[in-house]
Amino acid sequence: MNREWYKDMAFYQIWPRSFKDGNGDGIGDLWGVYEKLDYIKSLGVGGIWFSPLYVSPNADFGYDISDYYQISPDYGDLEIFDKVLQKAHSLGLKVVMDLVINHTSIEHDWFQKSRRGIEPYTDYYIWREPKADGGKPNNWQGIFESECWQWDDVAGKYYLHLFSSGQPDLNMDNPLVRKEVENIMRFWLSRGVDGFREDVITFISKTEGLPDDGFVIGLRGMRFYESGPRIHEYLQQYRRILEEYPDCFLLGEAPMMTPKKALSFVAGDKRDLDMMFHFQHMEADCFLTEYLRLPFNLKKLKRAFSRWQKRLYNKGWNALYLENHDHPRVISRYGSEQYRVESGKMLACAFLFQQGTPFLYQGQEIGMTNISLPKIEDYADCVAQDVYKRCKRMHLPDKAAMALIRPATRDSSRTPVQWSAGKNGGFSEAEPWFYVNQNYPEINVEAAERDPDSLLHFYRALLNYRKGNDVILKGKYREYEKQSRKLYVYTREYQGKGILVVCSFTEKPVAFQFPKKLKVETMEPLFSNYAAEPAKPEGFTTRPYEVRVYSCRTKG
Length: 556
Ligand code: GLC
Ligand code: CA
Prior knowledge:
Number of helices: 14
Low-confidence stretches: none
CATH superfamily of the domain at 10-99 and 360-370 and 413-467: Glycosidases
Bound molecules: alpha-D-glucopyranose, calcium ion
Strand content: 15-25%
């Protein structure tokens, strides 16, 4: 059995609410997924990661779970889940579930019992008395709301919620809670799933005493739970599931992670996790949070890419992504809506020739872009709503508040997938639960299938090219033109074979020269987003968002 099956493949992420409505109620669901499995397979991916499918009151769209053992009635039931799983497996697609265990929903039975003092649940969450002066138990800040302590009348205490108040943090120091986590993992593995994406997993161990924090750049309190004191112990406990399910794949979401720290999680045979989602390359146009936006800075992006490529080489394995349900669409951020297809292809090459397992997010393959809606009521994400409230508290006018929210909100990646130019973008016959981006007549899967030059076909070609390719799997990474604010140039090299990737992040022409240090004997064009135009021996001038990928034979 090859435990490392995840290395030579790519995943496709499904955020179920907006993927495809199969039963005509305007909400995406597993019947819709079932219909589209052949399409997913056709992309050249080897697996699916499902954002939460479980029962949830949707304070945070499934990331607040009230029953870990049932499928949300919005999405189907265990029967259709099993059917999807079986068909996915028969197509050779792995299936990975989201494991959200830093917190539950307030509607979870454990929380309902815990707040009423019913054993053994009293200690399942992090309850605290007010301070002697009546204040909050400590001075930590919330990640989703400014506060992270919520007073509960039933318990007569505060509970900790790092995310929204509908997402109380579990007390992972309680061995009974950790047993529950093991049971959840066993339940889904015994149904046949292939692994987990562990939500904000590096936050589950909190420093004893939950001490007050001093002045920090960033969030007050975070240093007391980010990679907290017992994190490795807990992750090792969950990893023991491999004794029963040796093929199980474990991926952790890790905000604030650095490559140096990451090695303590992902290196070696006894690693806690097979790979991690870090956020460093998602910060190239913002500061600390996506709501504090700065102009896009290519050097920041390149530094993040290169650090992770180099530090993990031969020690760990990277998870590669440009989009997921937590970030606006990448073409609207790092590319150009005006040069949508060109920049989409360029961005695809910027990450798909790196070493690691790529994750594609629904709609990324057809180049979906951000939405821009007039009023705060039009947005669905709890974070957007909270940012608006904060702006109002600071007496910012509506116009300024909306200017912050529009380019940053997670809602932009959560609009229904645009399947066709038909009604509601082919997502649903009924009124969709959320806005369909009005560009659907132009940007949709059917149109992309028809157009041989579409981003969709380009993604397919790249994903197929990656398969079994030693240079991509094992090659050494090297970056050139590090100081350039316009070009991202990198090579991969393995046993005399190489790949050179030249990406332009601007519409302006840039004179590119083949690096002198690059010792190649032959160079063949592999992929580009423009009609071939031969390069001179010394280089070429880029067209808007041009990318050129070459395969090379290297000297010595
Ligand atoms: C992760 C999820 C995000 C969610 C948060 C809290 O970051 O990806 O969608 O809101 O955790 O569960
Ligand atoms: Ca539905």
